């Protein structure tokens, strides 16, 4: 029945359920999963295959999903009790009671993102109301289901009360082993703790999580993401390319594409750069797990989702997922016998942002980072401050970096590239190299690859 609402109930241990672009089970799978708890509208139902339109939750806006996987239900019709209670009637379940709050939060997430963190009085009203509902529906001494703690914590956060939000999120984060909770919900609770800690620090409010507590929460969330990646294929890597067949690779070159690109975008650049190293080089080209259009509007990949609203306590989730994904890649290379100091991590545009984040949060440090047409801005510093606590980056002092930038770049202006050098120094890097390339836009010229190859050879010689 077209228009009927369904709820995703499976996939909690995998970050959601698989979505394909066609009815056939052999059709291509989409990069993003449909989140557990998402509400979808039926467009077409053929046997146990459902074509849907996303109403709430995260994941693809449309596609095909299976109702069951063997004997496990993945999607089920949404019961009438899941809808908001009719005006004037008293809710009979906690889910009904939270209906108005859920509708508010969904509308806020779908709205225009804000670069400012400021409270919404309506969120404060709903938070107070939901606390009363919890008191009424949850017997004293019984745990509150984590999904409702997440909603209440987000209301406090959007109300401009991060200390109160942190206390609620911490309850959800501590629900380890609770059969009613899932790894996904606990992960979001950990992220909420960290976001609330940073907001409380920014607002100079006492009583919030300490820098160390926020860093521990980020590490716990990242570790939960890490459990979902068991192989290079899981981490968005097709077969790595050993550039010489005679003997094992002694150097790895890991290059990250820009927003809207894919793993193949940097293949030619990687082959040219690897050929300059005069060593057995393994070229690895991961691709982001999120979708984004490229410069001509065709679908491509991204390293993060579009959540950028400072009022959203869970906006870092996709960033942590990307870091866990890339940790899987680097851990696999090390397990194959390539030491960390001989792994070179680089990225173009958005990919450079993530190459810096990965390099600055790993120990021991990688052999160096190559920043091609990228910038730092305040984002890396703010994220690192929450990720690493008061100690700062554990690897910055030993990290080498080469930044190449087109002098005519209109996407990431040259001034931002130059500023990145000072910002990396402020983060602890000793002497990052920088070169601007005249007449070059947002692209990778041949000379940039030659210069980067020379820098990498120096780094490798220094490490012996």
From TrEMBL:
Gene3D superfamilies: alpha/beta hydrolase (3.40.50.1820)
One Pfam family linked to the record: Abhydrolase_2
Keyword line: Hydrolase
InterPro entries: AB_hydrolase_fold, LYPA1-2/EST-like, PLipase/COase/thioEstase
UniProt xrefs under SUPFAM superfamilies: alpha/beta-Hydrolases
The Phospholipase/carboxylesterase/thioesterase domain, residue ranges: 245-454
MF terms in GO: hydrolase activity
Lipid metabolism found in the keyword field: no
Domain of life: Eukaryota
Family from the record: Belongs to the AB hydrolase superfamily. AB hydrolase 2 family.
Name recorded for this polypeptide: Phospholipase/carboxylesterase/thioesterase domain-containing protein
